[in-house]
Amino acid sequence: MDKDIPLEQAPPSYNDTQPVHPNLNQTQPLIMVQPQPMLTLPNVLGNFPSTATCPSCGVRSKTNVEIEPNTKTHLIALLICALGGICCCCIPYMTDSCQSANHTCSSCGEYVGTYKN
Ligand SMILES: [Zn+2]
Description:
Strand order of the largest sheet: 1-2-3-4
Number of helices: 4
Family: Belongs to the CDIP1/LITAF family.
Largest sheet: 4 strands, antiparallel
Keywords: Membrane, Metal-binding, Transmembrane, Transmembrane helix, Zinc
Bound molecules: zinc ion
Protein name: LITAF domain-containing protein
Shape: rod-shaped
Subcellular location: Endosome membrane; Late endosome membrane; Lysosome membrane
Radius of gyration: 35 Å
Order of helices and strands: HHEEHHEE
GO molecular function, one term: zinc ion binding
């Protein structure tokens, strides 16, 4: 007689042994990781200490600037020397705008970039 009972009406006794916690999954917040675009602003360098992102340590801070002569400096010096005489050829070496500005990280000292005039 009992075998006439449909399976759906049978007490799900074995299901009670495995307690389902539907709230457990809901308590975990859906962490929607929005892909924030890294604000990697371009390093705008100049003759002066500029705000730049260090490629080594990632710190964005003011850079240290070292002015040093480049090929252009020597060429200008040569040109001035030819035109104005030997006494004027040191002018480009004293003018920052005629030289390269080497930017280094103020945090770790890593080379960041060079601004060429
Ligand atoms: Zn650095």
